[in-house]
Amino acid sequence: MPATACPGHDELLAYTLGRLSDVAADDVAAHLGCCPDCQAELASFDDLEDTFVAQLRRPAPADPYQAEPQWHSMPFPNWKRA
Where are the chain's structural domains? Predict the structure, then answer.
């Protein structure tokens, strides 16, 4: 991408979501380093909800077996008990 050409909205969104090839992502990153307009547009994506990231941010469900008294007395080697 030439230094003066701004990536489009879809390309910036793909960059944000990690969907660009390494070469394309490097080009966009280099452009972002010197383009305040694209930096501002990229910052506007902070409010977008990526469903995969949202799933990762949710707390893990409780293990129903941890509530059982026998679980705490089992000899799990190197397992961290909650």
Answer: 1-47
